[in-house]
Amino acid sequence: MSKALEGVRILDMTHVQSGPTCTQLLAWFGADVIKVERPGVGDATRGQLRDIPDVDSLYFTMLNHNKRSVTLNPKTEKGKKIFAKLIGECDVMVENFAPGAIDRMGFPWEKIQEINPRMIYASIKGFGPGPYEECKVYENVAQCTGGSASTTGEIDGFPMVTGSQIGDSGTGLNLALGIVTALYHREKSGKGQRVTCAMQDGVLNLCRVKLRDQQRMAHGPMKEYPQYPNAEFGNAVPRAGNASGGGQPGWIVKCKGWETDPDSYAYVIAQAAAFPALAKTIGHEDWLEDPEWNTPEARLPKIDKLFEEVEKWTMTKTKFEVMHILNPLNVPVGPILSMKELAEEPALRETGTVVEVDHPERGKYLTVGNPVKLSDSPAEVVRSPLLGEHTDNILRDVVGMSDDEIAAAKEEGAV
User: Fold this and answer.
1) Distance CA 251, CA 224 (A)
2) For the segment 331-388, what is each residue's pLDDT rounded down to a tens digit?
């Protein structure tokens, strides 16, 4: 079986999380990803949040699988020439530096096009054109400026960010799609183009149901929100705790063992079609003949009381028992799975969603695998590169330098 992106060469100028997420995904699909790092320093995450002294951190290793590392200083004369040669030999360049950083290296888009008209130049920025264009952005800043934090949190509580990296990794996934789309377009046009993804845009894209609800507010109260009918709506979409965003009443309820286990909870949705089965299961068959309970309209004003009754039943069962009992009844339910439980789940190992990798310095560790499964192009997760591990090989095979030229470049500090 061939790799889907075999033959595509990526010049990876990314660091930290958003850019490396994108290029790692492309590498999993078979692209030759050449990660450019500063000589002697490398990606800042190599040393961040280390759990083992003087060894690449999990932060770095889990974002840079299947790549090759070359050290290069484009600020030197020789480094500029090598960088220009790499641009000429690659199909895609990806970067997530601060705005204008690549331009200041002497390689604006116009020059890149001169060197390689087929080059696809892909960038992740914090914001698109506008008043915040020059601002630096990190994960939680993106969540706050993209609408996620304002709509997340307890009812009447303060805004909350989510533990999911929707700003960084989410935007990296968007950029990967943009790159593959541009590569497909290049097959017809013969020309490269710019691909840009802003983190604010990426977060807002994931919050589209909240933008939907902002417009619905003009036409009356949103009855699926917990605020209805016992509280006032303001002029913006409110925080709704653990209420379902899809219009189906749902909530997180305690399960057996919750007193000592912080993850002994389950999410249960009281979907109208499955409500009779749910009511019977929790011992409330009487609701089915009671006009106070037997229609969605009657239940909405007292959803809190409904889930109090559901919780009385779930507290007598483990979260897995709740799942096994309710799922066959077509009641949507999911246990709250901890990272420990996910790490130890055999099914996730079998599908390659969780992968064990062996590293020459840190030993074995777990990482996430490719979330996209292709039937004829399975992804293999290969360990991340050591700093500059492939420098000589890349300079020789890609740039076309001789051993003497490589030695001279090292002497100059270009690599």
Assistant:
1) 12
2) 999 999 999 999 999 999 999 999 999 999 999 999 999 999 999 999 999 999 999 9
- Confidence tier at 44 by pLDDT (50, 70, 90): very high
**Residue 263 and residue 336 in contact, taking contact as beta carbons nearer than 8 Å:** yes
Residue from 62, 6, 61, 63 nearest 29 by CA: 6
pTM of the model: 0.94
Nearest C-alpha neighbor of 22 from the set 12, 32, 34, 9: 12
Fold annotation for 9-206+345-412: Rossmann fold (3.40.50)
Q: Where are the beta strands (DSSP E) in 132-202?
A: 194-198
Architecture label for domain 249-331: 2-Layer Sandwich (3.30)
Ranges of each domain in the chain:
9-206+345-412, 249-331
3-state secondary structure 370-407: CCCCCCCCCCCCCCCCCCCCCHHHHHHHHHCCCHHHHH
- Write out the two tokens for 195: 């691909």
Assess whether 51 carries a catalytic annotation: no
Bridge partners (DSSP) of residue 364 are 358
Tell me the pLDDT tens digit for each residue of 151-180.
999 998 999 999 999 999 999 999 999 999
Please say if the pLDDT value at position 221 is more than 90: no
Amino acid at 310: V
Q: Which of 12, 91, 168, 201 is catalytic?
A: 168
Render the burial of 133-166: b for 16+ CB within 10 Å, e for the rest.
eeeebebebbbbbbbbbbbbbeeeeeeebbeebb
Whole-angstrom CA distances from 236 to 166, 217, 231 are 22, 8, 14
The mean per-residue pLDDT over the stretch 257-284 comes to 97
DSSP assignment of 288-337: GG-TTTSSHHHHGGGHHHHHHHHHHHHTTS-HHHHHHHHGGGT--EEE--
Q: Are 275 and 329 in contact (CB under 8 A)?
A: no
